Structure formats: C-alpha cells, structure tokens
Amino acid sequence: MIKINCETKDTIRLTDCIPFQGKLKKRTEQDIQELKKSLESEGLMMPFAIWLHDNKKYLLDGHGRKEALVRMAVDDATLLNVDWPCVFIKAKTEEEARKALLQITSSYGKITRLGVKQFTATIPDYVAPSIAKFVAKPKTVESGDKLVSVPKAQKSVIRIRVEKERFAQVLDILKQFDFIEVL
Questions:
Q1: Residues 83 and 121 in one domain
Q2: What is the spatial distance between Cα 134 and Cα 115, in angstroms, rounded to a whole number?
C-alpha cells in the first residue's frame, strides 16, 4: 500500500484519469522506476491535478505518478481502487486547460548543487532520486583501520584574499554563480 501524504477534499481513481499532456514531457524507464521507488518509500506527496470537462476527468498534472502507480498495480491491483487525492483546476476551454497545464509544469527556478547541499544538510542520509545527481556521496576506501574519502574528479580551487570590510560583498557576488562553491 502506498502512504498518502497530502490531503484534499476531492479524490479520483487512476482509471478515471484521462491523460491530457500528450508528449509534452518525456519520461525514461529510469524516471518511472525512480517514481515507483519514491512512492514506495515516501508515499504520494502531491495530489493529481484534474480538469473536469464534459463530465470527463482530464489529468493535467501527475502523468508520471499515474504511470508508476498503474505499473505497481500489476503486482497490487488494490491500487486501482484507491481514492487518490486530487485538485480540480478551473478552465472553461481546452485552450485554458492547456495554459493551466503549462503553468503547473513550468519551472521558474533551477536546482543547484550548492542549494541542494545546503537544503539537505540536516538530512545527510536522505537522497531523493531526482536530486541524487546533485549530492553524490564521496567514495570511501579502507586505509588502515579507518575509511578515507576519495575525491571524484578534481575541481579547480582558487583562493582569494579579501579585505575584511569587503568580505560580505564579495561573498554575495560569488553566491550568484551556480558553478562556484564557497568553502
């Protein structure tokens, strides 16, 4: 059974969701497998977004989650009888529904390696599949009686000397770049 970790007043069955986004997003087999693992370990975190039109329930957001759950239903058919949380998106026309879908799936920011490191600092043992590429764990080898980290490819390290009065200003400038990590 998949734990449901979100609440809404409305629900939907997977079999009632009519796909709407076509080929807007491309998902690999690995994407679906990662979604399945995430659903198994963390549960469903976001409700499905549905556009109700002519008594049909069009799935605007949640196609990947639905596909992962349907595949999981091959081994556990009860998943098809679950009332999954959903939210209804208002749209009078298909054009409005398409605009809503683009709004829902738009990304107005970029996840950065440094941002993920800082955000996950208090949960160092947790790695969500979708962010694993940002927080790869260092390899370790035995050296005598202890484990020693083996660095991946060496990155360039530049040391700069800054007057104390200008340190905060320089730090603010450096933090604007995704590819610079301030140690």
A1: no
A2: 9
Rounded Cα distance between 98 and 155, Å, is 43
**C-alpha distance from residue 71 to each of 18, 86, 94 (Å):** 16, 20, 29
**Residue 57, beta-bridge partner list:** 17, 52
- Give the number of domains in the chain: 2
Same domain as 163, residue 119 = yes
Other C-beta atoms lying within 10 Å of the C-beta of residue 119: 14
pLDDT in tens, 14-40: 999 999 999 899 999 999 999 999 999
Residue 143 lies in a domain: yes
pTM above 0.85, yes or no: no
Domain end among 47, 76, 105: 105
Tell me the C-alpha distance between 133 and 156, whole Å.
20
